Amino acid sequence: MARKAATLSIVFADISGSTRLYESLGDSVARELIAQCLGVMTEYIEKNGGRVIKTIGDEIMCTFPTADQAVEASMDMQEGVAEDLPEININTPSTMAIRVGLHHGPAILEGGDVFGDAVNIAARMAGLAKGGQIITTQETAEALHSALRSSTRHLDRIPVKGKSDDIDIFEVIWQSEDVTRMATGLLKSQDRPGQLVLNHDGREMRLDQDMPPMILGRGKKADMIVNDSMASREHARIECRRGKFILTDMSTNGTYVLTPEGPSYLRREDIVLTGEGKITLGRDLSEATEVVNFFCD
Question: Torsion over CA of 229, 231, 234 and 236, rounded to 10 degrees?
Fold first, then answer.
């Protein structure tokens, strides 16, 4: 097969502390668990448009056309190992974790494998990551869509073998931090606000001022799960503030909302939900098949 140059995102992911699994679980049980873990990772790689290049023991190497796809897959893999794997295998330790490193840059495709400086840097990032971490480079962070880029934070500037200059490394934050909630009970109000009623796929949920914020998205941690490939795992948050129901977009692809005032498109913005209307995640209202209906009761 001829050589082909391409700009790709290269991802390395491996199981943290796999040697201890063999010691604590025994060879047969540990090998099965590792195989199932690699299976979960492969599922999310392919779901996000990636291609598995090879597996080496407890490590997997894969590529993606874009940095966005690579980061989304990396977050999905972390979440899948944390949530899906214990459901698949009851022997999954509570400490089970993977570490992920990635880099977006020029590479050479040949014979079904990938070569080049970008591969070496991605492997170096994986080596820097701890269990449960996703580590990448400044070049990769800058290649991300703005919403995903906001989920990264600068960690350090380090020397890398083969590079004349130090490089800046970033961590991708895949676990949502605790939401800071307003003490709405301390606000004086003549009238107690009603409820916001949400309906989707035959499921109804209600939100009032005494309840914590509600998350909409395709991830298992979402309060209302919307199975759309364009939806982020934790796509939008709805909460009651000072008697008003506020929807906040937290996604990559944005949120579409139809209220009595007309349609709105949100990107990292808030909107007050009034009356009754519709919410779609990542797709225009005219194209979406997964629609959340709401009504302020």
Answer: -170
